[in-house]
Amino acid sequence: MNALPQDLRTTPAAGVTLADLHDPDEIARIERFVAEQRGSVFHRPAWLAAIERGTGQQALGLIATCAGRLTGWLPLSDVHSPLFGRALVSSGFAVGGGPLAVAEDESQALCRVAEELALRRGANTIELRGGQAPQDWTATCTAHCNFARDLAADDEAELLAIPRKARAEVRKGLRNELAIAIGSDAEDRTAHYAVYSESVRNLGTPVFPRALFDAVLDTFGADADILTVRHRGEPVASVLSLYHQGAVMPFWGGGRYVARDLRANEVMYYELMRHARQRGCTRFDFGRSKTGSGPYFFKKNWGFTPEPLTYSSWNTPGVAPRNIDPTDEGYSRGIALWKRLPLPLANFIGPFIARGLG
């Protein structure tokens, strides 16, 4: 455990220190705390470690203690980029995170020390993806929604849980010549990256480094896998999913253009529901989508109810927050250009940009 320098402490945060994420005992202690507090997969030190290994963005964390007992945890990735600046993100490359604490005052203390840590490291922004932030931070609850529901009891019930129009699309896909493969070996990883990178290029956004996906799969082991849909031997849709506390989360997924006519994306998510149930999962966490976006309505059409997410941020006084919103009008020309890039070029340039998004 690394104590913060005395000049970076505040009185309410006297019990807050930097976690030693190189100490296996410290990591195990935090993992137990996350499990006890029913934290998300993005609160786990394992997530921070995978992000650091896959993108080079340093893993950090603040812990609050009382009488030797862990009472709060704030996972952080120090994300820096020549294009987007530097920020402490909780948690990096995630849709959740934020302070996890047994009481609100511990959350506040963690955030106040995070402010000082940001100043010390030259970061102008702190981004919290969930959790309680101080009232003087900027909060928004309209930009993104999460979608989750319980899994049905069996395959037919799962189909019937999907509204009629979307269910018809799934049934059409199931009648096509589609094969399902699930795993995390080299073939699975190659297929996933080929599909995912093409999918995000078609959306006009840079792809993450393949090393990020490898790091997550290697770090999480049985708690992560890839489901790929193939048509006549060719991968057309693929998703990398995480498993946490009885829930499956399809996190990085996409499909090629041909997937639309084949209804391969619809089949992919239905088959993932079946696979998750066979693994013993009871909940399907469809993840975050930007409010009003295509994925937002896709998930609503599957019968999922949008749940607004509250994100908070702090910025150095006088400095504008970084802007990594791909739907921002200022990026429209760049997005249009990116869609026209040859895929090999997009895959070469993209990771250098995307690893700074966080």
UniProtKB/TrEMBL annotation:
Stored Pfam families: Acetyltransf_6 (PF13480)
Q: Which residues cross the membrane?
A: none
Name the InterPro entries on file: Acyl_CoA_acyltransferase, BioF2-like_GNAT_dom, PEP-CTERM_FemAB-rel, PG_Glycine_Bridge_Synth
Q: Which residues constitute the signal peptide according to the record?
A: none
Q: What positions does the domain BioF2-like acetyltransferase occupy? A: 165-297
Query: Out of the domains of life, which is the source?
Result: Bacteria
Record-given protein name: FemAB family PEP-CTERM system-associated protein
- Taxonomically, what lineage is the organism? Bacteria, Pseudomonadati, Pseudomonadota, Alphaproteobacteria, Sphingomonadales
